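For reproducibility, we list the full input for the adenosine-5'-triphosphate complex.
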Amino acid sequence: MRFSKSFIPTLKEVPSDAVIQSHILMLRAGMIRMVSAGIYSFLPLGYKVIKKICGIIRREMDAIGGQEFHLPALNPREIWEETKRVEAFGDTMFHIKNRDYILAPTHEEIMTFHAKNVLKSYKDLPQIWYQIQTKFRNEPRPRSGVIRGRQFLMKDAYSFDSTWGNLDHSYKLHDKAYRKIFDGCSLNYFIVGASSGAMGGTGSEEFMVKSDAGEDTVAHCTHCGYAANVEVAESKSEAKKRDNESSRLNEIYTPSVKSIDELCTFLKIDESQCAKSRIYIFNNEPVLILMLGNDEVNESKLIKVLGGNVRPGRPDELKDLTGADAGSIGPVGFKDKIIADLRLKDANNMYSGANKNDYHFGGIDFLRDVKNIEYYDLRIVQPGEQCIVCGNKLEVFTAIELGHIFKLGTKYSEALGANYLDENGEAHPIIMGSYGIGVERILACYIEQHHDENGIVWENILAPFKVHLIALNMRKEEVEAASEKIYNDLSSAGVEVLFDDRLDAQAGFKFNDADLLGMPLQVIVGEKKLKENKVEIKVRKTGKREDVKLDEIIEKVKSFFS
Ligand code: ATP
Ligand code: MG
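The corresponding predicted structure, in tokenized form, follows.
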């Protein structure tokens, strides 16, 4: 393609609204433009890469027997009411003025609708159906460019099986395909066990890339590879050991002491002797949560234990329930449900709030002084703690989710009545899986991982063009003739070339654009080298330059890419 005839509006300056490198470089390279918050247009160069990514996804999905659909983005609201997901998505779903319709944030409902109508017998199963389609989510904080958009492309796939064992098989096929897709896109990623969130289901894993721009926090062990979203991550954290003897319960005057640290300083004790209290409201009922020392409550774990609909208690509620403010609340005398983190199991000689402002209790024995505590793993894993699998140190960092595979089970087939008949003519709900990949996220994460201070660095596979052919001065006849010939010869040889044939652009400007756009190989045609019948090639990734004879250039380029 000729640069002079292409729409590639590169920018020299860093756009002010962009913070992360992928966003900055996609704007500067003329791949995308923002229309409004979280809504982007892909310009031809950007869209070219999107199509390549989709090609890789299609190849791997077809290889596991996936069949491609194209479902409507405009959905009847009614079917979403049946699965109760209008409520589950809440404000994240785009509602349109005509209340009968919504813009689909995902497609479990519509795929299950089709499954219900056509997959009637065990003989019709298994099936893997997928599509690459636009999704709409009214993300409250669209950010990081296309990484969190309000409209984005998702590859979503759904498996339909007759047994749980077959679901495991379909899940494994997707796991394999996902690895091939992300490897195929040269991404450095890792896989984490995840919580299934609003989707429901029995097992799920996320494919993640490490990034400061990520909104997920992950615990990872570089030693054994254990990785989990902190929502579910566990570590080997030592429990508080029960002392042989329990001292007696005693009330202590602790003026203005609110935090665990203040309590430790005031009483000259260690935080491992303190139980921190938090009150949550679950379905309108208060629950007291006890954590050891400064351990924080992991709300995802709490939601899993209690079963949803949980929120922290408000200050006025705390006062009504306990007679004290946050900082002075404790388990002794608390009338409602109490649950505690496993580290506190059967602890004694503990300090905690006395449910009276400015007072704490010492000598609390959880077996003697507090009735019916239930114990669960409720804590947020911290960096440096021991890996639950191998005991080595855990890292905790932010990451971006590229893709997600779920064992959905029968949540959607039951809600929508998608049943199949087994060998004996008995009806059962179809067992489903759902598998998503963010197409734009692949592109953005690729750029996050493949760039330098001058611009993008494309590897072969996703590069919009393989060769960036730079004619240094197109007004010189010999430069024009030689570069036109190289352009034609390379194009005829099937090599995708971006030909910078702009008449009046300065050499420095062309070099900067070539580095910014980042095609793997640059071929530079200039007057000086032509005098020796040579052109220069530069490898974008390494910066390595070499002079090549004019009549050897096609072979040289071909061998570079072979
Ligand atoms: P996140 O936790 O990042 O919000 P999600 O868990 O809501 O993502 P899924 O419903 O699992 O996402 O969707 C499948 C894939 O779609 C994700 O793995 C991600 O790559 C992509 N995706 C989700 N939301 C967005 C978005 N707002 N913009 C771009 N891609 C998205
Ligand atoms: Mg997800």
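The first helix runs from residue 21 to 28. The pocket of magnesium ion (ligand 2) is lined by residues 401, 404 (CB under 6 Å). Both points were considered when choosing residues for closer inspection.
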